[in-house]
User: What shape does this take?
Amino acid sequence: MSSYDDIARDLVIANRILAKEEVVDAYGHVSIRHPDNPNRFLIARSVAPDLVGAEDIVELALDGQPVRDEKRTLYLERFIHAAIFEARPDVTAVVHAHAEDTLPFGIADATKLRPVIHSGSFIGSEVPVWDIADNFGDTNLLVTNIEQGRDLAKCLGGNNVAMMRGHGFAAAGRSLIEVVRMSVYLPRNARALIRAKQLGGRIRYLSQGEIDARNRGYSPYSTETWRAWEYWANKAGCGDMLRRPGE
Ligand SMILES: [Zn+2]
Assistant: This one.
C-alpha cells in the first residue's frame, strides 16, 4: 500500500494535471481516500488546483470536517467528496469540476451524455443528472453541506459520473489515475457528441459490450495507463514528482 507521502504527492500531480488540461480553473477539486484510514480523505485547502503544493493538502473526515484543528479556509464544496466516499466504499478518488463542454448535458433534457469515443468509455453507460433544486429549492447551486452532498451521492448511485444541473460534474474512480483520466476525457467525449449532433443523423454510441471490453482491459498501473499519467504530468511541469508504485 502507498504511504501517506506518496498519496499526497500524487494528489498534487493530479491537481496540476487537471488544471493544465483545463478540466478545472480557479475552481474545481480532486480528492483521494486516506491510504490507511478509509473514513478519511485528502484534498487541498481552498486554493486553485494549479497552485496546490504538498503543504496545502488537508485531511477531512467523511462528514466533510477537518480531522485536525485547521485555520485555513477549506473548499466550500468539499461535501461532494465526503458524501461520495461515505456512500461508495469502492471509490478511491473523486473529481468535481465545472468543465464548460460538459455543462449542456446537465441543462438540456434532449440528449444524455454517454460514451461516443473509445477514451470516453470509462464514464460508463449511464450518467445521471442531479438537480439540487429537486430537494433543496432555490440555492446558489453549490454543494455547501453534507445533506446536499449525500443527495448528490444518492443520484450518482453506482455510476462513475453524475452531471450537476447548471453547475458541473462529479466523477468517482477506483484510483486517482482513473478519475483524472475520466475527467480529462469527459469534456472531449462531450465535445465529440455535440459536434456529431450538429452533423445530424443517427448518433452511434459505444455499445454496452464495447464499454465492458474497454473496462476489462483497464489496470491503473499498466504501461498504457501510466503512459498517459506520465505525459500529462510532464506537460503540467511536474514530471520530476512522478514515482511509479514499487519504485
Ligand atoms: Zn462546483
Observations:
- The first strand starts at residue 29 and ends at 33.
- DSSP finds eight helices and seven strands in the chain.
- Helices lie at 4-20, 78-87, 104-107, 133-136, 146-156, 176-199, 208-216, 223-235.
- Residues 176-199 form the longest helix (24 residues).
